[in-house]
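Incident log, entry 3
Record: Protein phosphatase (335 residues)
Problem: checksum mismatch between cached and fresh output.
Input:
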Amino acid sequence: MEKLQQIRQTLEDIDARVPDALRVAFGLGYRVSPTPAPGEDDEVADFADSLLQPPPPTEDGACADADDCGPTEPDAAPSSAPTTIDWASCYVPLHDHDAHFGNAKAGVLGVADGVCAYADYGVDAGAFSRGLMTSASAEVAALEHGAHACPSALLQRAYDETAASGATAASTAVILSLSGNALDWAYIVDSAFVVLRDSKIVFLSTPQRHLSRTTRAKLRFASSEARWKQHLFSSRDPTFQLSDRVADAKSGQFAVRTGDVVVVGTDGLFDNILEEQLEVAVQMGTKLGFSPKNMADIIAGVAYERSKQTSSRRLRKGKRDDITVLVAFIVQSDL
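Fresh output:
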């Protein structure tokens, strides 16, 4: 996991990480190159348009450029070849409550977001998220070669260890684990992920909603040391979060293929970017030959710039928060 001091440059240089072509595509306004005068050709806009055009089909219906089509067609049968992940991350801190980890060898990714409301009452809101990801990362690293990590079980054990350590507060979380061509997942609340195939979203996790007021009595906080703070939330319900009931996490499985792109993030990402904008970023990044790190930086950069705009829940922008983005390419395994 990256340390805060290691990614400060990301925060300082975030504007420079978004190419002009993506700025034009996303309508972000600012661009490095001069804006053309009225009547002049806008080469940047033309380039952006060219990146978003589907490749022309050949006479037999196949793409003229196989690289532009991606390694698999939407209606093609999934390959049985074993897969692995090539992944990278970008973390743009504001409160420093997010945490994440990844293990390419084991095919496991995780993201957590500490519930910021605890910070108002003197609790380190990032302690539980950091504990979760540290525990999960250590357990995955200790797996025997070829062993599969079950996300739900991993989340439970990471919770048990973090709670036993005395860490206070609570956290959202999502853990993904690739086994063959199956992507297993478990998440709670609004840390989320999407799977894109040929730059189109084919799977999108659904955030869990807030607890109703009638369930307040059932809510348990993440450790006994923090339970006394329950009365501090008498005027509003805290977000449904990872507490004593890890069984409340949603879990499932999705079949992936070589060439798929998985984007994982905290609500700082998904509250500031639309699904179609993720598709545009992945499409343009794929055509430009971006690595997972390039793509994670660009997606985080777009979310960061949108977080500074006028707030709009409908347009998903203007929510200042920590932003964590993990991008994983599903690639064929060498094994």
